[in-house]
UniProtKB/TrEMBL annotation:
Record-given protein name: Hydroxymethylglutaryl-CoA lyase
Record-level Gene Ontology MF annotations: hydroxymethylglutaryl-CoA lyase activity; metal ion binding
GO biological process, any: ketone body biosynthetic process
The entry's keywords: Lyase, Metal-binding
PANTHER family linked to this entry: HYDROXYMETHYLGLUTARYL-COA LYASE
């Protein structure tokens, strides 16, 4: 019931750093990306073409993208303006993000769920014309700091639209870190049943120290792609109280012990994690 191998997508340089209150010099971010590249990680989220006023830490995304141009990196593109910036930077993979909860969307991207889904139509079409790979996040897929419980129907509503629009993968996010193994197992099992041809990714936060248990539960439901953040960096600026993402070194260590291949060198990863923690004022 466990996969032979899993893909670990490193989101530290974006999801990890976006919430750091003190601006980190671009060269330091590049040094982190470089250390991560040396671990054998194949795919990383490194940039966010979001409004620099909303997330100042990501204002150097063009320079980061320029450094990453030979890599298979992902950049967040919440709207058409962001997509144009990604196209100009020749970004290979983009990520859109919509919360299953409308209250969160209003805070995070200034739109309701249905307004965001509407905007996605033109965005997907243009990204597809440009040959880009599209990752589609369903954030707050288990619970939400603004509305509390998030129902499976709310998650399904967003997933259905993403599938219809032709997302290359759907990333189910426990953005505030309140999921538990049971709900994770149940939601992924149902989603995989309803959308057998869709690639699902699991994205956990470790707010209540259940991220690894949630990884195991998702594996048991057939998921073999996971996001994690080196050093456990992270938190979302619009998710009060959420602490870091699942730490990459934790999930790689667990997979090593379980005989599940990740293709990542653990010793080099530990070095990258030490460096990542030095960049953070919160760890
Ligand atoms: P807005 O202010 O509502 O945008 O921002 P607008 O369309 O009303 O435009 C206002 C002005 O902003 C205009 O300029 C636009 O040109 C400009 P003006 O005409 O006034 O001079 N503008 C932009 N400039 C640069 N880049 C852009 C852009 N868009 C408009 N892309 C927007 C809407 C979506 C841009 C804003 O709300 C935003 O940037 N939000 C980002 C929020 C964010 O990054 N949140 C964190 C990521 S989500 C997350 O962490 C969860 C996730 O990790 C999953 C998980 O952890 O579970 C994915
Ligand atoms: Mg996250």
């Amino acid at each position: 019931i466990f996969p032979k191998s899993v893909e670990i997508v490193e989101v530290g340089p974006r999801d990890g750093l976006q919430n750091e209150p003190v601006l980190i010099p671009t060269e330091k971010k590049i040094e982190l990306i470089d250390k991560l590249k040396k671990t054998g990680i194949q795919r990383m989220e490194t940039a966010a073409f979001v409004h620099p006023k909303w997330v100042p830490q990501m204002a150097d995304s063009e320079q980061i993208a320029e450094y990453c141009r030979e890599m298979n990196y992902i950049a967040l593109t919440p709207n058409l303006k962001a997509l144009d910036r990604a196209i100009a930077a020749k970004t290979p993979q983009i990520a859109v993000f919509i919360g299953a909860s409308s209250a969160f969307n209003q805070k995070n991207i200034n739109k309701t769920t249905d307004e965001s889904l509407q905007e996605c139509e033109a965005l997907f079409a243009k990204a597809q014309e440009n040959g880009m790979f599209i990752r589609a996040y369903v954030s707050m897929a288990f619970s939400c700091p603004y509305q509390g419980e998030v129902t499976f129907e709310e998650v399904l509503h967003v997933c259905q639209r993403f599938v219809k629009l032709g997302a290359d993968e759907i990333d189910i996010g426990d953005t505030n870190g309140h999921a538990n193994p049971r709900i994770v197992y149940e939601r992924f099992a149902k989603l995989r049943d309803l959308f057998p041809d869709t690639v699902f990714v699991a994205h956990f936060h470790d707010t209540r120290k259940m991220a690894l248990a949630n990884v195991v539960a998702a594996m048991q439901a057939g998921v073999d792609k996971f996001d994690s953040s080196v050093g456990g960096l992270g938190g979302c600026p619009y998710s009060p109280g959420a602490t870091g993402n699942l730490a990459t070194e934790d999930v790689v260590l667990m997979c090593n012990d379980m005989g599940i291949e990740t293709g990542i060198d653990f010793e080099k990863l530990k070095e990258a994690a030490t460096f990542a923690r030095q960049l953070s004022t919160r760890l």
